[in-house]
Amino acid sequence: EYIFKDIMSSICLQEKLLAVLIDPDKFSIENIEGFIGKVNRSIATHVFVGGSTVGVNTTDVLVEEIKKHTKLPVILFPGDVTQITDKANAILFLSLISGRNPEYLIGKHVEAVSKLRKTNLEVIPTGYVLIESGKKTAVERVTGTSPMLRSNIEYIVDTAKTGELLGMKLIYLEGGSGAIYPISKEIVSRVKKSLQIPLIVGGGIRSKKEIEEAYSAGADLVVIGTAFEEDESFFDDLIK
Ligand code: 1GP
Prior knowledge:
This protein has about 240 residues and is α/β, with parallel strands linked by helices. The protein has one domain (about 5-240): FMN-linked oxidoreductases (TIM Barrel), CATH 3.20.20. The chain has helices spanning about 5-10, 30-40, 60-70, 100-115, 140-145, 155-165, 185-195, 210-215, 225-230, and strands at about 15-20, 45-50, 75, 90-95, 120-130, 170-175, 200, 220-225. Strands 1-2-3-4-5-6-7-8 form an eight-stranded parallel barrel, surrounded by six helices. SN-glycerol-1-phosphate (1GP) binds near residues 204 and 223.
């Protein structure tokens, strides 16, 4: 149970965290070594692995390959039960609290338990809050839930706080992969002010400036996938 503790210690030391998201659907095994080399030389602190639509067993093989090339913790960010693999260090046990689809609030979780029992994965309960971000994203399509309106900040804050009060250890504000605009500074800062637990922010973040904006608004951990997939030279801006 050290991954969550380490996140907490970093936050106590006012350190900011960056996760590189690898979607098994979009990466081939052959490219992992080179890509992870860049991750290792960057300020990234975590590798997240997951996606909304991933073929069966792809995650397992991919995580194994990632682990060969990095010491960074690898955390599953699963879109589905089939993405659970013992090869990772931890799993974000995501409950989509912005939506009202019981499958993504509790159903998939019950399905996952028999698999989780057979692993040593550190399970980190996470309140997952999907917020509209300029386009219909895969999370919205796959889960059949509507994102929360950007304008309804009070409701977003209350939703995130509810996750904390239910005992979740992290809150993840999600704009969705490839979001047109990232979660606004105002939303991040209002949510952060109401929470005692760490805050993850992801979706549509594409530059060092946007990472810093998210941090200064209150994000403890920023997640980036698409920007690295589209242009690996982004890592050059993020060298340690
Ligand atoms: C998606 O929050 C993550 O689930 C990251 O989003 O791919 O837009 O960086 P991007």
